[in-house]
Inverse folding.
């Protein structure tokens, strides 16, 4: 009986560690990023999400800890998610250990630009149905 219980507990533990901690929902869409001197545009087939280029004060430091001091290892970041929060935009940063950190959207933009962390946007945040040409924007 004890061996059976031990086997079940080991099975549950192994299963718990193989299931992703933060699955990507159907409402989150991976986006491409385009930048210019004045703006950052996240683009998908659903539309665009646009931010003004973060202030020089935010973007001047090379240390990601300036933006997320509670993150232990910036190299383990998995993704940035922009989500609706009432009439505002919220940003979640997820790491490989399943830790979820809520951040200011401007800080998340900087984190994406500095570290190349993949970005996912909730489908309700897209403002335009299409993005035909990046114009003077850079990939």
């Amino acid at each position: 009986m004890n061996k059976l219980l031990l086997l079940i507990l080991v099975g549950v533990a192994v299963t718990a560690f193989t299931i992703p901690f933060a699955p990507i929902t159907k409402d989150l869409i991976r986006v491409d990023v385009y930048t210019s001197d004045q703006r950052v545009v996240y683009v998908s087939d659903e539309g665009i999400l646009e931010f003004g280029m973060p202030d020089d004060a935010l973007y001047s430091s090379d240390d990601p800890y300036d933006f997320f001091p509670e993150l232990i290892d910036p190299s383990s970041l998995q993704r940035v998610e922009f989500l609706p929060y009432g009439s505002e935009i919220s940003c979640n940063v997820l790491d490989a250990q399943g830790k979820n950190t809520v951040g200011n959207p401007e800080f998340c933009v900087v984190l994406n630009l500095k570290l190349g962390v993949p970005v996912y946007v909730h489908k309700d945040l897209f403002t335009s149905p299409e993005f035909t040409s990046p114009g003077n924007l850079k990939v």
